Amino acid sequence: MSKTNPAENLFRAKHDKADFIIAGPCSAETEYQTLETARQISACKKVKVFRAGIWKPRTSPGNFEGVGEIAFNWLRKIKKQTELLTATEAATPEHIEQCLKNRDALDIIWIGARTTANPFSVQALADALKGTDIPVLIKNPLNPDIKLWAGAVERFKKAGIKHTGVIHRGFSPFENTHLRNLPKWELAIEIKSIFPEIPIINDPSHIAGNRKYIKETAQKALNLNFDGLMIETHITPHTALSDAKQQITPETLKNYLKTLKFRKSTSEDSEFRNLLEQYREQINSIDYQLLELLNKRMKITEKIGRYKLKNNVSIFQLKRWLDISETRQDFGKTIGLDEHFIKKILQLVHRESIRIQSKIMNSNKKN
Ligand code: PEP
Ligand code: MN
What we know:
Blueprint: H1 6-12, E1 20-24, H2 31-43, E2 49-51, H3 71-81, E3 85-89, H4 93-101, E4 108-111, H5 113-116, H6 119-129, E5 136-139, H7 146-158, E6 164-168, H8 185-194, E7 200-202, H9 204-208, H10 214-223, E8 228-232, H11 250-259, H12 270-310, H13 318-334, H14 339-363
Parallel strand pairs: 1-2, 1-8, 2-3, 3-4, 4-5, 5-6, 6-7, 7-8
Bound molecules: phosphoenolpyruvate and manganese (II) ion (MN).
């Protein structure tokens, strides 16, 4: 493949304004639905990649499981008739074989959340892709395990896949929430810092599970400097054979892409840079002061630990802990801090105090 391959360029580019935009139906259902969705999506110039599931991982059996290989003929037509690149999900080595056989119809493979959760499956796919040049996007696993996600990316890199990227599609919630999958923005930031060179894309459709929440989720991702979005789009969402509730029409997509605020990752404007630099300096100074204070607090904790040991008093004092927790939360509230945030910080500090005191008790050194 030549150096000007547009899919490779997309992976290589510096996305300083979230322009890695993927859209298309959850599933390719019919030739008409697939081609017409692509035609309407391509009219809204911002989309670079057309997505369509060919094989669908369904939670329960007996549902629509995708049309299979025939959809490559439709993707091939889309590539001929539009500027769009194409992407589909592969979950087994057989799928990879079909993808490679139809390489002229397909630019990108993505790995689904259920597959990323299983290292055996990921390795089998990486092995099946060895020696090929097709870029691979890796969705986060269902469970919020950053090592499992990063491990999957590494497996593809080790197999020699030059162009990889990640997709944050949220994590299975344990309890009922208004979202289908909970976003864990801190994990998205962490995976980006492990692999700073690869694009990170947000999939607000699978996070939201309902079209009502797609736009706000997408905006949140753009605020956090994601490199792109993957949005499920269907000409008639309510008739969709999978994920009907979370798909939007190409018209709505066009509207979203026009009204979402695409933030730049930085600005060359010198006034902006100067002021930002000043704010950052303030934050730096405050962070060091926080650390010094924490250190001071822990030193007193050590003294208390030795004192308790001398007097044979237990480490954990419920009344004192409840008092600390309550008074600090109350104070935090009066100065405008979030109660939940204070509670979490106090718990961490308290846990560390207990660890330090336990160490002292175990060592039995009273001075
Ligand atoms: C999909 O993209 O249609 C899909 C099945 O996604 P996920 O693997 O995120 O559930
Ligand atoms: Mn879907």
